[in-house]
């Protein structure tokens, strides 16, 4: 491994250990038992899996090989992270393919619930809605066509590259994701409104790509408020004009 890669992958072990300490291990272990996520894994258990992926994120690694090489450079210090040894690339790959992602979804929401009282809610006094959400998507290009991208096949660049789209709804007060779904980039944004579970009297804001009149009708019946730009060819009638101080007309 080159000196450049070694420097890149050596995230501060003491800081990394402190970050991992924020994860309540007893609640984590309860989720392991619930999902039986350690079944069939002798060395690459759920905690090692999570630690490995967090190491890759904090060290800005670009591949599983970089992650495993970087952790191998920390040999002798991994016991402080409750790991016996650095995982082999093939072992980590098997874990990524085989372990159910629902386990990590529950880990995230467990942490969100655990730290919810400490998350920033300073802006909550400045809005009329205590349940305010923002929904949007971001497209990520892939080097291979494992997930269908958007657009036509390129004329001069050979085979069209793949792409995935990340759909995310965040809580506007705490800036934390409440919903994340990954799809092929070719799928239309509006198809994902149906997966949102919103309580009555909440407010959701999204752009014109999510314009879906049938879903709007459902939300209206459920008393869910939404803000979306109209399509240019939309036909509508103004039923009521609300007057409120400092309210701008965006019609």
UniProtKB/TrEMBL annotation:
SUPFAM superfamilies: Ribonuclease H-like. One of its GO terms (biological process) is DNA transposition. Keywords: DNA recombination, DNA-binding, Transposition. Residues 130-242 form the Transposase IS4-like domain. It comes from the Bacteria. One of its GO terms (molecular function) is transposase activity. Pfam families: DDE_Tnp_1, DUF4372. Belongs to the transposase 11 family. NCBIfam families: transpos_IS4_1. This is DDE family transposase. It comes from Sphingobacterium alimentarium.
